[in-house]
Amino acid sequence: MKIKLSNSDIQSTEVRRLERISGEDVKRCYQCGNCSGGCPVSYAMEIPPTKVMRFLQLGNIEEVRNSNSMWLCVGCLQCYSRCPQGVSVAAILEGMRQDTLRKGVSRTEVAEVPFPFLKKAPQQAIVCGFRKFVG
Amino acid sequence: MKIPYYPGCTLNTVAKQFDTSAREAASIIGFEMKELAQWNCCGATFPLTPDNVIGLTAPAKVLSNARKEGDTLTTLCSVCYNVLKRTNKVIRDNKEKRNVINGFIEEEYDGSVNILHYLEVLRDKVGFDKVKGAVKRPLTGIKAATYYGCMLLRPFEDIGIDNAERPTIFEDLLRALGAEPVEFANKIECCGAHLAMNNEEVVTNLSGKVMTSAVDAGADLIVTTCPLCQFNLEKSQPKVAEADTGYRPVPVVYFTQALGLALGQDIETLGFEKNSSDIMPLLKKKGIA
C-alpha cells in the first residue's frame, strides 16, 4: 500500500487536541506491540491498540474513529501496565470516546440496552455502560 | 477496631451476600465495618482522561463524607476501590484539580483518607495469621482459583495493593483458609466488564477464557472480589459449557463467602442461594458441609 504523508497530516490539530484531552503523547510509542499482545479485546478490534497509535502518529484520526476499537476498550489498563514507554492507549481511546459522546452521539441508544439480560446485573455495569456508551 | 466502610450501590442490592458475609466475617475476626452515614455511587468508572474532572466529583463526595468519620475507609467491590483510591490520589497530589472539585462539591477535602480494600485490612491490619487462627471449618481439599480481574490491581502506581503482574495477596488469604490456590493464566485478565451492556459475545469470550484457564489448572472453585466479575462469569458459564462439552462448570463465589465459610459461619447465612452457581455439591463432596 502506498502511503502519502504530508507535514500537515502529521501535525494534525485533531490529534493534538486528543493529546490534550487524554494527557498522552502519541509520539512516545515506538510500536513494540506489547499493548496489542496484552489487550484482552484486541482480537475483536478492527484496529488493535498498536495500530491505533501508529494511525494517530500519522495524523489519521478518522481511520481510528471509524473503527470499533474505542468502543471495545474495557479500560482494564493491561496496555498501560505493559507499555515500556508508559503510554495509556486506554486513555487515548477514552479521549476519543468522550469526544464523540460529548457531541451527543451515542454508541448504544437507551432503547437498545438489553434490560431483561441485565435484570440481575450489578448497577455498576449499567452506570459504567451508560457513561461509556450513551451520549 | 472500627473501620468506616463504603458498600457502594451494588453491594446494597444484587450483591447483598457480598456485603453481609463480609460484615459477619469481620465481627468474627474482631473488627467492625461501620457503614458511612451518608454515601453515594462512586460513578463506577474512573475517568481515564485528565480532561474529565466532572467524573471525579461523585467519588470525591464519598471521600469527603468518609473523612468526617475517620482517616481510613474500607470497601469490598474492586471497582469502588479503584475509583476511590485513584480519585483520592488526584485530590491529594493535584492542587489545581482539588480546588475545582472542592468548589464543585462545596467541601474542603484534602485527600487524607487512606483507602483500604477489605483484603488489605485482613492482610495489614488483622494479619493473615490471625485469620488462619480463627478458621473453624478449613476449606481443605478445595482447589481455589483466585480471580483478581483488573480493577483490584491496575494501575500499579495508583493502586499498589500488590505486584500488578504477579500478585499473591488473594492466594495468601485462601491458603490461610485451608484451600489450595491454583496458578492459572488468566487470573489478572479482564472479564469483559461493562461490555455486558452491549456486547455479550465479547464478555462470554473473555469470561470464558478466565474460567477455562482456571478449570484447566484444576480449580474446583472460582473466587472473586468484584460483583461485575461475579456476574459476567456466572452469566457466561452455561454458554461456555454449551460451546465446549469438555468444560467442567465450577461454582463462583465472593471471597467473603469463602472466608465466612472457613470461619464457621452458618452456611444458611452466607447467601449462596443468591449466586447463580451452586457450591453445595462441592462442599458435600469435600466433606465441608
Quick overview of this protein structure:
Chain A has 135 residues and is an all-alpha fold. Chain A has helices at 7-10, 13-22, 34-38, 49-57, 61-65, 69-72, 78-82, 89-102, 123-133.
Rg of chain B from C-alpha positions?
19 Å
CATH top level of the largest domain in chain A is Mainly Alpha
The residue-averaged pLDDT of chain A reads 95
* CATH architecture assignment of the largest domain in chain B: 3-Layer(aba) Sandwich
- The count of β-strands of chain A is 0
Instruction: Name the poorly predicted regions of chain A.
Output: none
User: Structural class, from secondary structure content of chain A?
Assistant: mainly alpha
What percent of residues of chain A are in strands?
under 5%
Could you say which overall geometry of chain A the principal axes of the C-alpha atoms support? globular
Tell me the helix content of chain B. 40-55%
The secondary structure category of chain B is alpha/beta
Please describe the structure with a list of short key phrases separated by commas or semicolons.
heterodimer; A: 135 residues; mainly alpha; Fumarate Reductase Iron-sulfur Protein, Chain B, domain 2; B: 289 residues; alpha/beta; Rossmann fold; 4-stranded parallel β-sheet; 44% helix; globular
Could you please describe the fold and organization of this structure?
Chain A has about 140 residues and is mainly α. In chain A, about 50% of the residues lie in helices and about 0% in strands. The radius of gyration of chain A is 16 Å and the shape is globular. The termini of chain A are far apart. Chain B is built from twelve helices and eight strands. In chain B, the strands form two sheets. In chain B, strands 2-1-3-4 form a four-stranded parallel sheet, sandwiched between helices. Chain B has a four-stranded parallel sheet with strand order 6-5-7-8, sandwiched between helices. In chain B, helix 1 runs parallel beside helix 11, helix 2 packs across helix 4 and helix 9 crosses helix 10. The model of chain B has no long low-confidence stretch (mean pLDDT about 95). At the A-B interface, helix 2, helix 7, helix 8 and helix 9 of A face helix 9 and helix 10 of B.
